[in-house]
Specification:
Blueprint lengths: L6 H13 L2 H17 L1 H4 L3 H33 L2 H30 L7 H15 L2 H11 L7 H8 L4 H6 L3 H15 L4 H25 L3 H16 L1 H6 L1 H26 L3 H18 L6 H11 L4 H14 L2 H17 L6 H16 L7 H5 L1 H8 L4 H33 L7
Helix pairs in contact: 2-12, 4-10, 4-11, 4-12, 4-17, 5-14, 5-18, 5-19, 5-22, 6-22, 12-15, 14-18, 14-22, 15-16, 15-22, 16-17, 17-22, 18-19, 18-21, 18-22
Length: 433
C-alpha cells in the first residue's frame, strides 16, 4: 500500500521537469506570440495571469531572502571564515561586472546594430516616435525622466540603503533595504550563544523550507503563464515596432546568448559536471527568469539548482544567492552598453576610445544601481549614459519601451545565470558524490 502513494508525486515532478526545459519555454513563447498576433483583443487581457503569477512569487521573496541570509550568515560566522568569503564576493562581483561591461562594449561596437537599418526601418521608427510624441502620456513620461537631474547626495544614497523601519521596507518590497537588515542581523546573531539562538535557527529554517515548497507549487502552471504573457505582450506592442527594432533586439540577444554560454562553461568547469547536468540543474531558474522577468523570484530555484543539482555547499549558496540577485546585474550592464551604442549608430555619432572607456565605467556603475529595478525604470537609466556621451535619448525612449518586454527576458536570464556563475567562482569546488 505504501508503494502506490508516491506515484502521483513522481509524475508531477516529471511534468514540471519537462515544462521547464528551454525547448518547452521557447515553444510556449512562440505559441503565445501566434495567439497574440491572430487574436489581439482576446490576448491583451491575458496579462492579468502574468501579474497574478508574479505577485504570488514576489509574496515569497521577502521572507525567503531574510530567513536564508540570516540563517546562512549566522552559521558562517560560527564556522569561521566569514571575512574571507565576503572579501572574495566583493572581488568577484566587481571583476565580473566590469568585465561584462568591457566585453559588451567590444562586442556591440563590433556589431554596430544601428548602422545597418534600412531606410524603411528608419521611416517606421520615425513614425512611431512622432506618433507617440503627440500623446500626453508619453510627454508626461519623458518629463518624469528629466526631473531626476539634481545632484545625488550622500544622504540620498544612505536613505536608499538603510531601512528606518524594517517592517515598512518588507511591506513595500524594498529588497535592498531588507538585504542590508538581514546582513547586519545575521552578523549580530552569529555572536549570540548557540543555546539561546537555537529557537531562532529552527524558525528561520522552517520559513526557508516552506518558501521553497510554495515555489515548487507555484511552478506547476508555468507553461500557461508563459503563453499568456507572450500573447498579451505581442498583442499590446504589435509586430511593427518589434520588426523595426529588429537589429537592436537581435544584436542584444546574440551578445547575451554568448555570455550565457560563457557562464555555463564557468559552471561546468567549477562544478566538474557534464554540461547536460549543468543545464538540467538550472533549467527551472531559467524558466522562472523568462516567465517573471524578476531575478529575486528565481532565488529558490537558483539555490536548489546550485546545491541539489551541482552539489555546491548549501550554507555558502544560501548566503550568496540573495546578494548576487541584488548586486550581480550582468544583463542590465549589457543592455546599457548595447542601447547606448545603438542610439549612437542610429544618429550617425562616432564614439571615441575615451568615450568607450567612459561607457564601460558608467554601464558598470549603472548596473549596480538597478538593484530592485525592472521594466521601463531600467530603460530610463540609458538616458543617464547618453547624457554623459552627448547623445539624444528622449526621442528613442519610446522605441526601447516597445521592445522592452523581449529585452527584459534576456536581461533577467543573464542576471540569473551570471549570478550562478559568479557564485560558483566564490564557493569551493564541490566534492564528487
Amino acid at each position: 500500500m505504501s508503494t502506490a502513494i508516491p506515484a502521483p508525486q513522481l509524475s508531477l515532478q516529471k511534468f514540471v521537469g519537462i515544462t521547464t526545459t528551454p525547448w518547452a519555454v521557447l515553444g510556449c513563447l512562440i505559441f503565445g506570440g501566434f495567439l497574440g498576433t491572430l487574436f489581439p483583443e482576446f490576448s491583451k487581457p491575458l496579462s492579468v495571469v502574468g501579474s497574478v503569477y508574479v505577485d504570488l512569487l514576489t509574496m515569497i521573496v521577502m521572507p525567503f531572502l531574510v530567513s536564508s541570509v540570516i540563517f546562512s550568515l549566522q552559521k558562517l560566522f560560527r564556522e569561521g571564515g566569514a571575512g574571507k568569503v565576503l572579501g572574495r564576493l566583493v572581488t568577484v562581483f566587481l571583476v565580473a561586472t566590469f568585465a561584462t561591461a568591457l566585453l559588451s562594449t567590444v562586442a556591440a561596437n563590433a556589431v554596430s546594430p544601428g548602422s545597418y537599418m534600412s531606410d524603411l526601418d528608419r521611416e517606421t521608427l520615425g513614425k512611431i516616435v512622432g506618433k507617440e510624441s503627440d500623446g500626453n502620456n508619453t510627454v508626461m513620461a519623458l518629463r518624469t525622466l528629466e526631473e531626476p537631474k539634481k545632484d545625488v547626495t550622500l544622504k540620498d544614497v544612505m536613505n536608499s540603503l538603510i531601512p528606518s523601519n524594517i517592517f515598512a521596507s518588507l511591506a513595500n518590497g524594498e529588497t535592498l533595504k531588507a538585504l542590508i537588515f538581514a546582513l547586519l542581523f545575521g552578523m549580530a546573531a552569529g555572536q549570540v550563544p548557540t543555546r539561546i539562538s537555537d529557537g531562532l535557527n529552527q524558525t528561520l529554517e522552517t520559513i526557508y523550507g516552506a518558501c521553497q515548497t510554495l515555489t515548487k507549487w507555484i511552478n506547476i502552471p508555468l507553461p500557461i503563464v508563459l503563453i499568456c504573457l507572450s500573447a498579451s505582450q505581442i498583442a499590446t506592442t504589435g509586430l511593427e515596432s518589434i520588426l523595426a527594432m529588429g537589429n537592436f533586439v537581435l544584436s542584444f540577444s546574440a551578445i547575451v546568448t554568448v555570455f550565457l554560454l560563457i557562464c555555463l562553461l564557468v559552471l561546468r568547469f567549477r562544478s566538474e559536471m557534464p554540461m547536460g547536468k549543468v543545464i538540467s540543474s538550472l533549467k527551472t531558474a531559467f524558466a522562472l527568469a523568462v516567465a517573471t522577468n524578476n531575478t529575486a523570484t528565481c532565488m529558490p530555484a537558483m539555490i536548489d539548482g546550485m546545491t541539489n543539482g551541482l552539489n555546491f555547499t548549501r550554507s555558502r549558496v544560501e548566503l550568496l544567492v540573495p546578494l548576487a540577485a541584488s548586486l550581480m546585474r550582468a544583463g542590465a550592464v549589457t543592455y546599457f552598453v548595447c542601447a547606448t551604442l545603438f542610439i549612437a549608430d542610429m544618429y550617425g555619432r562616432s564614439i571615441t576610445m575615451n568615450e568607450l572607456g567612459m561607457l564601460v565605467a558608467l554601464a558598470a556603475m549603472a548596473g549596480f544601481a538597478t538593484a530592485g529595478m525592472t521594466g521601463v525604470v531600467t530603460v530610463g537609466l540609458v538616458g543617464t549614459l547618453c547624457t554623459y556621451l552627448g547623445l539624444p535619448f528622449e526621442a528613442a525612449f519610446i522605441l526601447f519601451v516597445a521592445v522592452d518586454p523581449i529585452c527584459t527576458i534576456f536581461r533577467t536570464s543573464l542576471n540569473v545565470i551570471g549570478s550562478c556563475a559568479a557564485i560558483s567562482v566564490i564557493c569551493p569546488t564541490p566534492l564528487k558524490l
